[in-house]
Amino acid sequence: MKIIVTGANGFIGKQLCHQLIQNGIELVTLGRHQVPGIKAQHIYCDLLQPNNLPQLILPLQATHLIHLAWITEHGNYWHSPSNYDWLSASLDLVDAFSKSGGAHITIAGTCAEYDWRYGYCSESLTPLRALSCYSECKHLLLKQCQTLCNANELALTWARVFFCYGRGENEARLIPSLSRVFSGEQAPFGVNLENYRDFIHVQDVARAFLTLAVNNAKGEFNIASSQPLQLRRLVELIAFNHGVDHSTITQLSPTTVDSIRLLVGNNQRLCDLGWRPNISLEAGLADFSPQLKRAAN
């Protein structure tokens, strides 16, 4: 097995590369920058620019492709026109890989593809509903890759990631922002405290991608904890880890109103492959403890 990984410098990608190496799997990273600390072959390539992908990929003789690269700028990726650029670039990549003799492709989708009004998201039952440029382009990519892969007898896994968190996460996201508030580094803001979300640690997410590739899985999979967490409880846990009063946040009205009370993914299909989330929320939130942050600095 030889795996090409795009987005290897990203939040999930770095963790995935470490796990692939730990499992003795031959790895090639493809992108603009080599991953610091990762001893693996790197192919320099800007996927958004005209390139010679077939000539780059064919000599690698890779069996698998895990495609994680996409626009990830927090707050902007939902409606950025760059989503269409990534849709086109991703199709070019899949086409080049299919012509190289590869056998299996895993692509990162998103829980945002689902109709969130249903609350509990199942791959086979929950309708899809694109409400953003991001989710629309991801779903278009799935449909076109299904057609392309079927025509080339190439196995395709589509992995819908739920609310991934952990060390190295963008500081503008919810959990790092709450940590910064309770550390006195950021002004307090309101949270939809009664809502429930499905949080899963980045190491478990990376291991899920590894599991899907190693098992040559086919079809659509949720990468989720399947454990709904009330945001009030999340705020309380982070405040406790910082040794401060959670009312700094809980006394405020939500900064933006989110009417979706429940959003959780059914992970049974992934669990059937032998995967289980290993990192509890309490252990995962230790990534944001004041002691760990001071040690990192």
Largest sheet: 7 strands, parallel
Total DSSP E strands: 12
State Rg. 19 Å
N- to C-terminal distance: 38 Å
Named CATH architecture of the largest domain = 3-Layer(aba) Sandwich
- Spans where pLDDT lies below 50 across 5 or more residues: none
Which band does the percent of strand residues land in? 15-25%
CATH superfamily of the largest domain: NAD(P)-binding Rossmann-like Domain
Structure annotation, total helices: 11
Element order: H for helix, E for strand:
EHEEHEHEEHEEHEHEEHHEHHH
Please tell me the total number of domains.
2
Provide the spatial order of strands within the biggest beta sheet: 3-2-1-4-5-7-10
Briefly note the CATH topology name of the largest domain. Answer: Rossmann fold
Helix content: 25-40%
List keywords for this structure.
7-stranded parallel sheet, 19% strand, 11 helices, 5-stranded mixed sheet, alpha/beta, 2 domains, 297 residues, UDP-galactose 4-epimerase, domain 1, globular, Rossmann fold, 12 strands
Task: Give a description of the structure.
- With 297 residues, the protein is α/β, with parallel strands linked by helices.
- The protein has two domains: 2-164 and 200-223, 3-Layer(aba) Sandwich (Rossmann fold); 168-197 and 227-264 and 279-296, UDP-galactose 4-epimerase, domain 1 (Alpha-Beta Complex).
- The protein has helices at residues 11-22, 53-57, 82-99, 133-151, 174-182, 202-214, 231-242, 247-250, 268-271, 281-285, 290-296; strands spanning 2-6, 26-31, 41-44, 64-67, 104-110, 120-121, 155-161, 163-165, 196-201, 219-223, 228-230, 262-265.
- The strands form two sheets. The chain has a seven-stranded parallel β-sheet with strand order 3-2-1-4-5-7-10, with helices on both faces.
- Helix 1 crosses helix 6.
- The two termini are 38 Å apart.
- The mean pLDDT is 94.
